[in-house]
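Reply to dn_fold:

You asked what the input looked like. This is it:
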Amino acid sequence: PSTALSADGPCGVAYAECIDPDEEGTDCMGFNNCLSACGESDEACSQACVDAVTFLGGAELSAVSHCAADHACGGSSGCMAEHCGLEYAQCLASGSGTSTCAEVADCSSACPAEDQACVDSCLDKGTLRSQEVYVKTVLCLNEACPDGEANCVSAAQQDQCAQYVAECFSL
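and this is what came back:
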């Protein structure tokens, strides 16, 4: 295929969805989870994660990586929130629905602690725009409050993340 239609090209995600939407394997978020479970120097584990990712998962991951590189985000969640929210949301979500960002947030906050499957299910119910804004909000809050302490989160919602919170609850 042409460069535009490759997994790394500007049409990569759309092309991958068209080529094999039901491909068996690991999606973008599953790849991230797999890689996180590998030790830093465990090349065999990392390679197994790479080998298991679907074409679509690879295209979504590539879109996140390219966006982060284009904006020199490094490991900054704040930078990712500002510049790469849509790409990151497409990686995290496995579908979309009709819920607003506020409904996604309410659903997620009702999930038991450490129940990522519940949070993922909530995210999948949101519209694409709601997913993007919700992910931007979470990335901003993670940057502001890496330990998730309640007082910090409350302050960040009023201060450095206020724009994302306001947008989330206005959709």
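The chain has a mean pLDDT of 86.
Hope that clears it up.
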